[in-house]
């Protein structure tokens, strides 16, 4: 990446910069390969942040099917993460995981479960055999305590598990239906929607060496670091994320040494070497210290997140674009890479982070307002759907993290918070699912690559030309939802 004019002497946010077009021979977005350049090599350079209100099993499997990876938070007990990882690994790599309900399930229960997935349907099963479908329109004007067997429709399409996404699309299109049930020996395996069939021809899933969906998990720098690392690797975590708000500290270095030692022992025994991500940092010196301690990837960003109040409370942090550019350059010189973590509000921000040298981009709050995030669906007085999100250094998160401490210790910790404890993240009616957001993001990033004349993200970083703009320059580029 180079600057269009001289590089300014002050630090920059994503809003401060733009990308100038270059001569290009890339004529189609589909000529662009978005495989990450972080050394992990996921087909999509998108990481779901390890936030308790966002990243869970449903998010992990959905994002992995489209080529990204989600990070389970450090606050989740190891036994729960073990169950979640095993369920992600057992999920089909192509077909969506269905919402399953029994015939006697009530309409109210079924509707609550349907909101956990974007495909908007529950499959009624009898001894693992699909016998009907329940959709929200089936339940209109029906008592919430009625059973799904009374309203399910039985005129659904069931296709064998070896059916290609293209054939699923043709079958559904010919029948004027939106969803097909996928079976093997009459057992429910998954389902696929019309849109899902199209997506399966565009995206590649992120798979481990055994062909299972990939998932990452976070480790804190306090407590039993060795035990948690060993447990996560035993569960099948593909990437280990050593995470704390201030990554450039002695305790992080000590934790990294422990994690690397355990990881290397497991790798020697199994032949599987899980990459170690560590952060958060924003300076070259921090990058070098954590690489020396054992980090393969550095997580970059202090204070840019939507739920973070660190900069306003402490004055500590750094404008994200400059932090990404400097840390990425330092990491590359050492044969390592970075994840740009935080500050992502639009697809342009993802593109700029990748142009600045990030191997992948981590997104948190933007994904909170989706069907697949872990929070419960809520409705505001105006009838708008939303989910609650909160920062991982907020008092709410601290209470969860210190649940095993004494009441006095928890009370002391609760006095010091950096982050919003409750925020409404509304579902965008145009893009209510995380896959909808991935379509939105990847469309923008692919197009950015064509403007730069790049077919890969490595070429994108090499060819990107970035300029500095004023606030009015940024505002000029914002579209208008209504006329003047």
Low-confidence residue ranges? none
Backbone CA Rg: 23 Å
Q: In whole angstroms, how far apart are the ends?
A: 37 Å
Helix content: 25-40%
- The total domain count is 2
Compute the number of helices: 17
Give, in spatial order, the strands making up the sheet with the most strands.
Answer: 3-4-11-12-13-14-15-16
Would you identify the CATH architecture of the largest domain?
Alpha-Beta Barrel
Structure, described:
With 484 residues, the protein is of the alpha/beta class. The protein has two domains: 2-92 and 206-476, TIM Barrel; 99-195, CBS-domain. 35% of the residues lie in helices and 18% in strands. Helix 1 (57-65) packs parallel to helix 2, helix 2 (78-90) packs parallel to helix 6 (225-235) and helix 8 packs across helix 10 (320-333). The radius of gyration is 23 Å and the shape is globular. It starts with a strand and ends in an 8-residue tail after the last helix. 46% of the residues are buried. The model has no long low-confidence stretch (mean pLDDT 93).
In short:
The protein is α/β, with parallel strands linked by helices and 484 residues long. It has helices at 57-65, 78-90, 107-114, 165-175, 194-202, 225-235, 250-270, 284-293, 310-314, 320-333, 347-355, 365-368, 395-401, 407-414, 434-452, 457-463, 471-476, and strands at residues 2-3, 17-20, 46-48, 69-72, 99-101, 122-126, 129-134, 157-160, 179-184, 187-193, 216-219, 239-243, 276-281, 297-300, 337-341, 360-363, 378-379, 385-389, 423-426, 465-468. The chain has 17 helices and 20 strands.
């Amino acid at each position: 990446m180079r600057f269009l004019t001289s590089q300014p002497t002050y630090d920059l946010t994503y809003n401060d910069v733009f990308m100038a077009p270059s001569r290009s021979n890339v004529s189609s977005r589909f000529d662009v390969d978005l495989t990450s350049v972080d050394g992990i090599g996921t087909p999509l350079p998108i990481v779901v942040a390890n936030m308790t209100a966002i990243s869970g099993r449903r998010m992990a499997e959905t994002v992995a099917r489209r080529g990204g990876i989600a990070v389970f938070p450090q606050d989740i007990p190891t036994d729960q993460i073990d169950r979640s990882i095993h369920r992600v690994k057992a999920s089909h790599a192509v077909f969506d995981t269905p919402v399953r309900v029994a015939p006697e399930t009530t309409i109210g229960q079924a509707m609550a479960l349907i909101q956990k997935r974007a495909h908007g349907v529950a499959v009624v099963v009898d001894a693992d055999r699909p016998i009907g479908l329940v959709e929200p329109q089936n339940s209109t004007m029906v008592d919430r305590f009625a059973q799904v067997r009374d309203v399910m429709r039985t005129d659904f399409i069931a296709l064998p598990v070896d059916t290609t996404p293209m054939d699923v699309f043709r079958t559904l299109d010919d029948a004027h239906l939106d969803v097909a049930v996928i079976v093997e020996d009459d057992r429910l395996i998954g389902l696929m929607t019309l849109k899902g069939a199209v997506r399966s021809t565009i995206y590649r899933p992120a798979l481990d060496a055994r062909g299972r969906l990939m998932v990452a998990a976070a480790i804190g720098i306090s407590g039993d670091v060795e035990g948690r690392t060993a447990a996560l690797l035993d569960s099948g975590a593909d990437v280990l994320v050593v995470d704390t708000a201030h990554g450039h500290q002695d305790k992080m270095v000590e934790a990294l040494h422990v994690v690397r030692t355990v990881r290397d022992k497991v790798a020697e025994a199994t032949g599987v070497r899980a990459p170690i991500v560590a952060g958060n940092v924003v300076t070259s010196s921090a990058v070098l210290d954590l690489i020396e301690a054992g980090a393969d990837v550095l997580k970059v960003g202090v204070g840019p997140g939507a739920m973070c109040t660190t900069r306003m409370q402490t004055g500590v942090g750094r404008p994200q674009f400059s932090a990404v550019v400097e840390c990425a350059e330092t990491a590359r010189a050492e044969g390592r890479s970075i994840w740009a973590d935080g500050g992502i509000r639009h697809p342009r921000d993802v593109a700029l982070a990748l142009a600045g040298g990030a191997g992948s981009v981590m997104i948190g709050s933007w994904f909170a307002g989706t069907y697949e995030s872990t929070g419960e669906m809520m409705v505001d007085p105006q009838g708008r759907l939303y989910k609650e999100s909160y920062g991982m250094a907020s008092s709410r998160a601290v209470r969860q993290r210190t649940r095993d401490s004494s009441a006095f210790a928890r009370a002391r910790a609760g006095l010091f918070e950096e982050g919003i404890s409750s925020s409404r993240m509304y579902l965008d009616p145009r893009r209510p699912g995380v896959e909808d957001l991935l379509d939105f993001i990847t469309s923008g990033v692919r197009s950015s690559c064509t403007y730069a004349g790049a077919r890969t993200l490595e070429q994108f970083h090499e060819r990107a030309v970035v300029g500095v703009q004023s606030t009015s320059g940024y505002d000029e580029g914002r579209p208008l939802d209504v006329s003047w």
